[in-house]
Design a protein that fits this description.
By secondary structure, this protein is an alpha+beta fold.
Length: 986
């Protein structure tokens, strides 16, 4: 009995579906067309059309090539399966059931095959076009000049060739598997493969077709084994806890992969021969496949496991030593650590030297302003209008003023559109179009009331000038102070500029008379939107009818968009990973945003693989900085310095590392002149280059392990370091950010602008080393000052705790942090000086009033181990003087005084304590004993209560001293010094 064909859709239903599909395709194509057209206009504005055309062309070619190729393979196999169908099919219930499907497919089989192949090809093409970066590197990559230690193959193969080969192999596997499944389905529907009936279950033609596809799959598996041998140098070695092939991999798994590749070739031949020429059945091919599976498990799994378990693990230190050495060498080379200069620093002097008071290279340049804390101060004092903003974090740069170079805290006065009182379309996009001025203040100077001393960017506030907190002249002069491109601008903060006639409509700045000045943009930046076509185009793009209706858009109008400097460079150079902290600098009278660009790779053999987001996250992440993407890399270079003009948006990409093979490949991919040569970098711009923060964080974190170059010591891990947590909030789990300083470290000839970080031994709190990154003669330089293993010198967390827990300092801090105010700590600076360690930590006080801002009120200064000599002074000068006075009573390098932060007694035969004074002294002694016990126990709650009790006992003792007529300020016995155990904040 013949089955009736499936019912056909009505004409109205077909028309409805057709209209819906047409509308969907129309709007999709319209959206793509508008996006492509506006992108072309934007790239034409910034003069980087080669990037737009290069990426677009590559994506289209990959889409078409892989999509059509996949569709052809799938469609060809489906057509072939139908072509090989048997002319006669035995009668059976199974065939009767399939007849209705044959009747549905046969009349339009070509259409069905085209649809299936087209859909699969579409998805394959969409996947392929996203691999444009791999293809461009594959085509344009060269050699690194470095060979891998196992095969002797240039590293360029792994970085440029291997990723795309593995992708093509994946495409091949997908095509074969889908072809096999599709062909099997067609053979089944049309009778070539049967589950019921008399005779063979498969025709000879179907067997030949399907067995050939299986053989091709096995041959691809052989190719995969060959590539896997190379890719093993990128895998994680569990035995050594490093990346790269280890002992078991090289001596067991590598030979196994080679054997399996040969076995796969033999199995592929056996499948074809036994299936079609000898036995003409699937028994022996099935046995061959089973043997391949067993071989893969035994040779590729069990044997390497046995070698790892019974040969490597019992003597892993010796067995893995050569491969650990490979990983150390590769990691140091891939991340620019190979030329790190390491020197010992004894830090044996624990007594403040007298030279502190007369120093001219370190102490005068100590930075007191914290860019994160004083941002609120800048906003309140230099805001002028409520809609101006400086962002949550300012930046550090250096300038030469009156022949002296110093570091300055700088910020750009930008528009905060959320604060506009009338935040309508006209105001947001045509009136409040730009900020005004770069505001700067010396990082080591404040006014008497604790506010910065502003030397540039002020808008003429006479009250502040009278108070002496603003320079009468602009010490960082800017010829064009208007900020049309800045960090505070989001994707939707476009500006429409350019007016007809003489009337200016853009708010420029307030005047000294209390009025307002207006302006019309005259820069080269922006896309012209004077024509109706352009206005319609951007009305569709922004989904905003005002482009067509508003009188603010005229024949001379320009559209400024993508105004965030980082986004602007990212669009121009999509192959770069950008640093999360762009910073402004005045270069030749114009404000330029400087952004560091990194070239990265994830296939450098034997190099450690890190996650950029994880490695660069610390206390400042997303507080005026951008968080990096979760990108895993094992090669990184600061190859590009990019600039964006804050007025006209001009983007320039300067080649900074002219030896980087990855950058050379990208430059070649886009025509060879995408980057400006390093020799063309203006000298005035070079003076503002700084060691990039995110690159430094990655290198610093790697150096905590890879400063150890001996494989045996590395395996033991005893000399590893760690990055300390934020000193004033160690329990937050956030890492202490590195800090920029203009200073001179031991062995350096002159003060230099450098990025610095302290590290501690793994699992302990004392100081292990200082790491610094700077530029010397235009070249990046990493330096490490390593302290002895058993040093008494404390790390940042320990020093902060020791300083703030000293009795008299704690009392002063408590007075500062009343119910109406809170104490905020700035950067804790760790500085080597006089064969010892100097610590400086600014203390800010912020009132709880809604409009309050932090004021620098005190400076914590310590020397030595952090707790023996420490003072809390009103300013740095007084702090240094007091510190030197404390150290006069002890020999250099000698024993510190017996009291926390107090000079040694001049009279060793003090009169005995009696009465209430003796009782108060006993309570202090008991409190000290409890503090030490709480420290040992590691109980945070107990430790905090013990410190509170000690503080109360010290207060009572000082009151008893005054009542007894004895000089105050001493203590009955040695104050406890904080142990390496973590403790509560303050």
């Amino acid at each position: 009995m013949r089955s009736s064909p499936m019912p056909r859709m009505s004409r109205r239903g077909r028309v409805t579906i057709g209209v819906l599909v047409a509308v969907f395709v129309l709007f999709t194509l319209l959206g793509w067309g508008v996006q492509a057209w506006t992108d072309w206009l934007w790239f034409s504005e910034v003069r980087y059309t080669e990037v737009f055309t290069g990426v677009l062309t590559t994506r289209l070619l990959l889409f078409l090539t892989v999509g059509l190729g996949m569709a052809a393979v799938i469609g060809g196999n489906l057509w072939l399966a139908h072509r090989l169908r048997p002319k006669l099919r035995p009668h059976s219930l199974e065939q009767a059931t399939l007849e209705r499907y044959r009747m549905l497919l046969s009349p339009r089989l070509g259409t069905w095959i085209a649809v299936v192949a087209g859909v699969i090809g579409l998805f394959a093409g969409l996947s392929a076009q996203s691999r444009w970066n791999q293809w461009l590197l594959f085509r344009n990559g060269g050699n690194f000049g470095v060979k891998d230690p196992e095969f002797g193959v240039d590293v360029g193969f792994y970085v440029f060739q291997l990723p795309f080969w593995r992708y093509l192999l994946g495409v091949g596997f997908t095509a074969v598997v889908l072809s096999l499944l599709g062909a099997l389905a067609v053979h089944y529907v049309f009778g070539g493969v049967r589950l019921q009936g008399v005779g063979d279950r498969m025709t000879n033609a179907a067997r030949a077709h399907l067995s050939t596809l299986v053989a091709v799959f096995v041959l691809l598996k052989a190719v995969a084994y060959v590539l896997d041998r190379r890719a093993m140098l990128l895998e994680y070695n569990e035995g050594a806890k490093l990346y790269g092939a280890g002992y078991a991999d090289v001596n067991a798994l590598l030979p196994a992969k080679e054997i399996l590749a040969y076995i796969s070739i033999v199995v592929a031949i056996a499948i074809i021969v036994f299936s079609n020429a000898v036995m003409r059945n699937l028994v022996w091919p099935g046995i061959a496949l089973a043997l391949l599976g067993v071989s893969a498990v035994a040779i590729g799994g069990i044997y390497p496991w046995a070698v790892q378990t019974f040969e490597v693990k019992p003597s892993a230190r010796d067995k893995e030593a050569p491969y650990i050495a490979r990983s150390i060498e590769a990691t140091r080379s891939a991340f620019g650590l190979k030329d790190t200069k390491t020197q010992g620093y004894a830090a044996s002097n624990l007594v403040p030297p007298a030279s502190l008071a007369t120093d001219t290279s370190v102490v005068p340049n100590l930075r007191l302003l914290d860019p994160q804390l004083v941002s609120e101060t800048y906003t309140q004092l230099q805001q002028v209008r409520g809609f101006y903003d400086f962002g949550p974090k300012l930046d550090i740069d250096r300038y030469a003023v009156d022949g002296k170079t110093s570091d300055y805290v700088v910020g750009v006065r930008e528009i905060n559109y959320d604060e506009l009182s009338q935040n309508n379309w006209i105001n947001k996009h045509t009136v409040y179009t730009h900020g005004y001025g770069l505001v700067g203040a010396p990082a080591n100077q404040v006014c008497g009331n604790g506010v910065p001393y502003f030397v540039s960017g002020s808008l003429g506030d006479e009250a502040k000038e009278a108070a002496g907190c603003t320079s009468p002249t602009d010490q960082i002069p800017t010829e064009q102070p208007r900020i049309y491109y800045g960090e505070r601008m989001g994707p939707d903060d476009y500006a429409i500029v350019g007016q007809t006639g003489d009337r200016n409509v853009e708010f420029d700045r307030p005047t000294s008379t209390g009025g307002e000045q207006y302006y019309t943009y005259t820069g080269e930046g922006g896309v012209k939107i004077g024509s109706f076509t352009r206005r319609l185009l951007y009305a569709i793009k922004e989904q905003e009818s005002n482009f067509l209706l508003s009188e603010s858009v005229n024949d001379k109008s320009k559209l400024l968009y993508v105004r965030n400097p980082r986004d602007r460079v990212e669009k121009v150079a999509p192959f770069l990973t950008l640093d999360g902290d762009p910073y402004p600098a005045v270069v030749k009278g114009r404000v330029q945003w400087i952004i560091d660009g990194y070239t990265t790779a994830a296939t450098y053999p034997y190099a450690e693989r890190v996650n950029l987001q994880q490695e660069t996250t610390d206390e400042l992440t997303n507080r005026g900085t951008f968080q990096l993407a979760r990108e895993n890399v094992n090669y990184m270079r600061n190859s590009v310095k990019a600039t964006v003009d804050a007025y006209d948006g001009t983007v320039r990409l300067y080649e900074f590392d002219d030896s980087d093979p990855v950058l050379k490949a990208w430059n070649k991919a886009f025509g060879g002149d995408l980057l400006l040569p390093k020799a063309d970098i203006p000298a005035e711009l070079t003076e503002h280059f700084r060691y990039p923060a995110d690159m430094f964080k990655v290198q610093r974190n790697l150096l905590t392990k890879f400063h150890v170059t001996d494989p045996g010591d590395f395996y033991s891990g005893q000399d590893f370091w760690q990055v300390p947590n934020v000193p004033d909030a160690p329990d937050s789990g956030q890492k202490q950010p590195p800090y920029y300083l203009f200073t001179e470290f031991p062995g350096q000839q002159d003060p230099r602008f450098q990025l610095t970080s302290a590290v501690t031994p793994n699992g302990r709190q004392n100081l292990a080393a200082l790491i610094s990154g700077s530029y010397v003669d235009g070249q990046p330089t990493l330096e490490v000052w390593e302290l002895p293993d058993q040093t008494r010198v404390g790390g940042p967390v320990q020093v902060h705790q020791q300083m703030t827990n000293i009795g008299d300092i704690r009392q002063q801090l408590n007075l500062l942090s009343s119910n109406q105010a809170q104490v905020q700590y700035g950067n804790l600076l760790s500085l080597p000086f006089g064969n010892g360690m100097l610590y400086v930590e600014p203390v800010y006080v912020k009132s709880n009033n809604q409009t309050a801002f932090p004021l620098l009120q005190r400076v914590l200064v310590s020397y030595g181990d952090g707790g023996s000599y420490a003072v809390l002074a009103k300013n740095l000068s007084d702090g240094i003087k007091q510190l030197v006075e404390q150290g006069k009573g002890a020999p250099q390098g000698g024993t510190p005084p017996p009291t926390g932060g107090n000079p040694p007694p001049t009279n060793t035969e003090a009169p005995p304590l009696t009465g209430e004074l003796a009782a108060a002294a006993d309570r202090v002694e008991q409190a000290i004993t409890e503090v030490k016990a709480a420290q040992t126990s590691g109980d945070f709650e107990r430790y905090g209560q013990a410190l509170k009790t000690l503080d109360e006992a010290m207060t009572a003792f000082q009151q008893a001293q005054q009542a007894a007529g004895r000089p105050a300020g001493g203590s009955p016995s040695a104050s406890p010094s904080a142990s390496p155990a973590p403790s509560p904040n303050g």
